[in-house]
Structure formats: C-alpha cells, structure tokens
C-alpha cells in the first residue's frame, strides 16, 4: 500500500531500527518507547488490522507470535512482556497496518489506559 508508513518501513523507504526480518514479518524498535523494551512486529503482507485476520492469514499471525517470543527472549524480556494490538481508531490504532507492540522491562499496570 503506497501511503502506509509500515509498508514504507518494510520497503526500506523509511528508516527503522530493525531487530528481526524474515520473508513474512519485520520487527523494529518503537520510535517512542513506553517501556525499556518496546518493539513492534508487523506482517509484510498489508493487513489493515486485527479485525481483518481470517482463517487464510491466521498462520501468519501465529508465526508473528513465535517471532515475538524469540525476539523478546533475545532482548532480555524473558517470559515477562505484554503484547498489544489496537483495532480501529477508537481503540488507539493510528497506523492502518496490523502491528503488535511488545513491551517489557518494567511492571505493567492494569487496566492500561
């Protein structure tokens, strides 16, 4: 998608601090971190949000969660981290491309926001 900031990051048109990349997804540090460890994992396929996950693309989401566990461990988060995805503008989604925030390195309060 030509106007999607995450598609531009994947294409290398916008710089990012890459952590991980494979043929299906891309992980990078958040530019405005909310925790000592804060990174995003995005699919390379343009899916607008969690409300567009289907039976057909669900295996991609499973792969992303495996990548989240691997990268979180590599960054020292161990088994203590939060994974967040917002669905729609009223829920705080500001980029119309499915993405998962991973936060760790501090106590997470509940409820969030």
Structure characterization notes:
A hairpin with a 7-residue loop joins strand 2 and strand 3 (37-43). The chain has 2 helices and 5 strands. The chain has helices at residues 5-10, 58-74, and strands at 18-21, 25-29, 37-43, 81-84, 100-104. The protein starts with a helix and ends in a 9-residue tail after the last strand. The mean pLDDT is 95. It has 113 residues and is an alpha+beta fold. It has a single domain, classed as HIT family, subunit A. The radius of gyration is 14 Å and the shape is globular.
Biggest β-sheet: count, sense, barrel?
5 strands, antiparallel
Number-wise, the strands total 5
What's the CATH architecture? 2-Layer Sandwich
Per CATH, the superfamily is HIT-like
Briefly, what CATH class? Answer: Alpha Beta
Structural class: alpha+beta
Helix content: 10-25%
What pattern of helices and strands is seen along the backbone? HEEEHEE
């Amino acid at each position: 998608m030509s106007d999607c900031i995450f598609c531009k990051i994947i294409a290398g048109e916008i710089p990012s601090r890459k952590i991980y990349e494979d043929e299906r997804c891309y992980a990078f540090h958040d530019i405005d971190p909310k925790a000592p460890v804060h990174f995003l994992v995005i699919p390379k396929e343009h899916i607008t949000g969690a409300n567009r996950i289907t039976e057909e693309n669900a295996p991609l989401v499973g792969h992303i969660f495996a990548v989240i566990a691997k990268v979180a461990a590599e960054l020292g988060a161990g088994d203590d981290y939060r994974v967040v995805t917002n669905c729609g503008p009223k829920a705080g989604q500001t980029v119309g491309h499915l993405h998962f925030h991973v936060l760790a390195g501090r106590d997470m309060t509940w409820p969030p926001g």
